[in-house]
Specification:
The complex is a heterodimer.
Chain A lengths: L1 E5 L9 H13 L3 E4 L18 H16 L3 E4 L2 H16 L1 H10 L13 E3 L1 H8 L1 H8 L7 E4 L21 H8 L3 E3 L12 H4 L1 H17 L4 E4 L2 H17 L8 E3 H8 L17 H6 L4
Parallel strand pairs in A: 1-2, 1-3, 3-4, 5-6, 5-7, 7-8
Chain B lengths: L3 E6 L3 H4 L4 H8 L5 E7 L5 H13 L4 E6 L2 H14 L7 E5 L11 H20 L7 E4 L3 E5 L3 H12 L3 E5 L14 E2 L4 E2 H14 L3 E4 L2 E9 L2 E8 L14 H5 L3 E3 L8 E3 L1 E2 L11 E2 L5 H5 L4 H5 L12 E7 L1 E4 L3 E3 L16 E3 H8 L20 E8 L15 H15 L4 E6 L9 H10 L4 E4 L2 E7 L2 E8 L4 E7 L1 E6 L1 E3 L3 H8 L26 E3 L9 H19 L3 E4 L4 E3 L9 H5 L5 E4 L4 E4 L9 H5 L5 E3 L4 H12 L2
Parallel strand pairs in B: 1-2, 1-3, 3-4, 6-7, 6-18, 7-10, 18-29, 20-27, 21-22, 21-27, 22-23
Antiparallel strand pairs in B: 5-30, 8-9, 11-12, 12-17, 13-14, 15-16, 19-28, 24-25, 25-26, 31-34, 32-33
Helix pairs in contact in B: 2-5, 3-4, 5-18, 6-7, 6-15, 11-12, 12-13
Classes of the chains: A alpha/beta, B alpha/beta.
């Protein structure tokens, strides 16, 4: 299988571990991943204004590049980028008039993007496509004795027409953990909002959410929380540290990108991670479990 | 050439408002074969029908075209009218200039032009109509009722009491159905068993009812008036002639399995009667769980039976019954709680469905009517009831309203408060629908007298924390998030058609709606008939409904069947698709496409034969026949071509 790859800004900086481990993992699963030679900011959030077309230009430019790259699928790891690009595709497909306006504006590009040429795919759906058998072939029958709380966040599940799974009762993440020989923990706050950008102007709310999500994962016996969204990662990881500094009774749990754990399960050395990017250091737990 | 009269109806302004009647009348006068044209305000009224009869006589008409509403409405009416005046009714045709013309157009000019063409084509058809005589077929005056719940029981009793034989088939070891599992019934709070069991006993003692429990319908052929039904009687492993129902075998049987009747909250033996008031009150051996059938050893029941009634050698038996009509009363089941992962369905033991709660309330249930939660048997001090779970949720589950949950949840909360007066009962609801006699008063009573707390909003999730079930919801009346710490949660799960029923429906070729419920022939005027003649629908197989509605439907179906059986012959429409043996090569293409098994190849003659009683004139064979040998009566290829010509003619 071959896919194009769109990293987005965070995966080259704070979210580097997500990128590094995913690329190694997919290599092991015989997926040929090629990063787009030229890409732009995804647009960060999907503009809710249908008339403000200039905000749609950034994702469409990226899609044009993906189309030119010639591969049928575009892997987008960051949940926020996935959401923005996927909705831009839908927008341009559903609104031919506005698509024409955007095309007219983008006079530097010779390629036009209509909506169906490249399929935007997230990591979980790609792993599903690769299939359980192939994964078992790489991972083997061993189980890691790791209890993992899969945290979906909102960007992969909403709105419904671009969602990768049910927004109230998804199972895809847990299914993948299971496929990789990890033990999924179903905890009630796995689709709760992390607080998102409220971290900028209402950080108390994010603290409340983080406390809720983290405590619930611990209460249900998890060793790790995994996520696919850099913003969720930040809110759960960094904010946890802040809470812990103020409240000594608060128990912490390391937060990882899902690929960090899946790659370990697939026999890839954890050394490729830069653990300095974690506020709650996962190394003690990894050591305790004999994985480091 | 025929002498055709055309009668154009105004239908008040329904037609005349969009179609210029005068112009239609003028145009029609010149059609070949038309000798008389008249219009009238309401052709279906008495004076209208009189007018038609008079003109048939005075103008010596032998064909009539009524330009009016759809033939599904008044074709029968007008065919009766013309036959009273001596014309063969099949020489009367309807030109539909209402539903297919005036109602769907606004431009008078165009609608009038279209109406003229419609009338013209029907005149062309009528010119070639043959005189036909209805086909008579004898009726087997016996009915089959599938399903022995309250709807099936009621239908069977009524038909039997009208003097006709009934075969009642029930797949479980006892009749009684869901109602037998209920505790009390709304809005009167009378005990379900107390009102149901006398009827069950009546079934057993009624000489006209042949009761086949632990049985399933496996094949059906034939058609209205003359169905042949194959019924599999599953081996009960007990000789009911010898068995007295003493119960010693049940007592001694060493195997314990979860009791389905109590929704798994109690245990039953491998040889068991379903519940104490079961009819017949005799046991069956569940072979899947019987030690002897699984491992070849035990036979303890045989040793203790004083009557030698245990029969391990008994085999499934398929019997054949002939019946004239079939009542489908296959009932419902609840959408499984495991479909509600966000509510912990299937994971959290104390998150249960409504039927399970009925068993907890029932005096014959696993807790003898004390409300004790499944996980640890403690009396729950706070119970949350959630309505519309799976229902009214087109995006995730089902779009329809399950209809009975508003009332039974109110009843549940009320009964809980009666049993646990210091307990708290919360009901999360989207709407409270209490359309029914005494229902609204019942709901008011629950709030005012029993202090049940109603919260308008949906529940987002249910999870366990510190031994409590945390119910996160939203109160849309105060606009606030609500969190209730509950000891038990009861989900009013969506009502679904019984899972085994789909196979039977396919076998019978009866149609179902998008949700799997049986479709009635007409939603208002033929609510208990299916589109397939002779098959009737009652109870929850047709859609969610409460006991009074199920009983009313059963009464209605029984009365329709009694009317049918009161005649010696059934009249079948003569519009069927025959075979022109001179043209037929016996290729059998039509046999393959016939959905009613009405056609078969006669090897000796080398042609196809038609069973006219089975033919429903769908026309599939006529369309498929490569040689034009299959021709539908009064809708022959010649007629269709002449109709098309008439429509296209300038």
């Amino acid at each position: 299988m071959e896919v194009s790859y769109y990293p987005g800004c965070t995966l080259k900086t704070n979210g580097k571990n997500f990128e590094v481990t995913t690329l190694k993992l997919l290599e092991k699963l015989d997926v040929d991943v090629k990063e787009l030679e030229e890409w732009y900011c995804c647009g960060v959030t999907f503009s809710q204004s249908e008339e403000n077309l200039i905000q749609k230009v950034a994702p469409i430019r990226t899609l044009v590049k993906a189309k030119e790259a010639g591969r049928k699928k575009l892997l987008v790891l960051c949940a926020m980028c996935y959401n923005t690009l996927k909705r831009a595709v839908k927008f341009i497909k559903d609104n031919p008039d506005k698509r024409d306006v955007i095309h007219d504006f983008m006079d530097r590009e010779s390629t036009k993007y209509f909506g169906d040429e490249v399929e935007i795919i997230d990591l979980l759906s790609l792993l599903k496509l690769i299939g359980r058998e192939k994964i078992r072939e790489v991972v083997g029958d061993k189980r890691l004795n790791l209890k993992v709380a899969g945290y979906y966040g909102c960007m992969l599940l909403r709105p419904r027409d671009i969602a990768i799974d049910s927004e109230t009762n998804p199972t895809l993440l847990e299914e993948m953990l299971e496929n990789f020989g990890l033990s999924p923990v179903y905890f009630p706050f796995r689709v709760e909002c992390c607080g998102s950008y409220q971290i900028l102007n209402n950080s108390d709310f994010v603290r409340k959410q983080t406390r809720l999500i983290v405590s619930s994962a611990i209460e249900n016996g998890a060793d790790f929380i995994v996520t696919l969204c850099p913003l969720c990662f930040y809110n759960l990881d960094e904010v946890q540290k802040e809470i812990a500094e103020e409240d000594s009774a608060f128990k912490t749990i390391p937060v990882m990108y899902i690929s960090q754990l899946l790659s370990i399960a697939a026999g890839i050395s954890p050394e490729i991670n830069d653990f300095n990017l974690h506020s709650i250091d996962p190394r003690p737990v990894l050591r305790e479990k004999g994985l480091l | 050439m025929k002498r055709i009269g055309v009668f154009v109806c105004h239908c008040g302004i329904n037609i005349a408002g969009t179609v210029d009647i005068k112009r239609v009348v003028e145009a029609v006068k010149n059609f070949p074969g038309v000798v008389y044209v008249e219009d009238y305000k309401y052709m279906c009224s008495d004076p209208g029908q009189n007018l038609i009869r008079e003109k048939i006589k005075s103008e010596k008409l032998d064909g009539v075209v009524i330009a009016a509403c759809s033939p599904t409405l008044h074709e029968k009416t007008f065919r009766n009218t013309v036959s009273q005046a001596g014309i063969n009714p099949y020489n009367c045709e309807i030109a539909n200039i209402r539903e297919q013309c005036s109602w769907v157009h606004t431009n008078m000019e165009e609608a009038t032009e279209k109406a003229i063409r419609i009338v013209k084509s029907i005149v062309a058809k009528t010119l070639l109509d043959e005189s036909l005589v209805p086909i008579k077929s004898p009726v087997v005056k016996r009915a089959l009722v599938v399903g022995g719940g309250i709807a099936g029981i009621q239908a069977a009793l009524n038909i039997a009491n009208s003097g006709y034989e009934v075969v009642l088939v029930e797949k479980e070891p006892s009749i009684g159905g869901r109602m037998a599992q209920f505790s009390e019934t709304f809005p009167t709070l009378d005990c379900a068993q107390c009102i149901l069991t006398p009827k069950m006993v009546d079934v057993a003692s009624n000489e006209n009812i042949k009761l086949l429990t632990y049985s399933e319908v496996v094949d059906v052929s034939g058609s209205v008036g003359n169905f042949k039904v194959k019924i599999k009687k599953k081996a009960k492993s007990v000789d009911y002639e010898k068995c007295t129902g003493c119960g010693i075998c049940v007592e001694k049987c060493p195997v314990k399995v979860p009791n389905e009747f109590d929704r798994g909250m109690s245990e039953r033996k491998a040889i068991y009667t379903q519940f104490p008031q079961a009819v017949p009150n005799k046991p069956v051996i569940d072979r899947e769980n019987c030690t002897y059938f699984q491992k070849g050893k035990c036979r303890l029941c045989e040793r203790v039976c004083p009557f030698g009634a245990i029969d391990f050698e008994q085999e499934d038996e398929v019997i054949e019954e002939e019946v004239g009509a079939i009542v489908l009363a296959t009932g419902y089941e609840l959408y499984d709680v495991s479909n509600m992962g966000e509510y912990g369905g299937g994971e959290l033991e104390d998150v249960i469905d409504g039927l399970t709660f009925e068993r907890l309330l029932s005096s014959s249930g696993p807790t003898s009517g004390e409300v004790r939660r499944p996980s640890d048997g403690k009396v729950p001090k706070t119970v949350v009831f959630v309505k519309c779970v799976g229902s009214r949720d087109p995006e995730h589950h089902f779009p329809y309203c399950s209809k009975v949950c508003c009332m039974y949840t109110t009843k549940h909360a009320m009964l809980y408060k009666h049993r646990v007066p210091d307990g708290k009962a919360y009901i999360f609801y989207m709407d409270v629908r209490t359309a029914g006699k005494g229902y609204e008063e019942f709901y008011q009573r629950a709030q005012e007298e029993d202090g049940v707390i109603y919260l308008r909003g949906k529940v987002s999730k249910i999870y366990k924390s510190d031994g409590k079930l945390i119910v996160d919801g939203f109160d849309t009346l105060t606009g606030r998030k609500v969190q209730v710490e509950a000891d038990m949660v009861v989900l009013a799960m969506a009502i679904r058609p019984s899972s085994g029923a789909e196979k039977l429906f396919n076998l019978l070729k009866v149609s179902t709606d998008a949700n799997g419920f049986l479709t009635e022939a007409h939603p208002k005027l033929r609510p208990v008939e299916s589109l397939t003649a002779g098959i009737f629908l009652v109870g929850c197989a047709q859609g969610p409904k409460d006991i009074p509605d199920s009983v009313s439907q059963a009464n209605a179906a029984a009365s329709m069947i009694s009317v049918m059986f009161s005649q010696d012959y059934l009249i079948h429409e003569p519009i069927i698709t025959g075979v022109n043996e001179d043209l037929c090569s016996g290729c059998g293409i039509c046999v393959a496409v016939c959905p009613y098994d009405a056609r078969k190849i006669n090897r000796e003659k080398g042609t196809v034969e038609v069973n006219e009683i089975l033919c429903e004139a769908c026309g599939a064979c006529a369309a498929a026949c490569p040689s034009g040998a299959a021709q539908q009566k009064n809708l022959t290829d010649r007629q269709i071509i002449s109709m098309i010509k008439a429509i296209l003619e300038e």
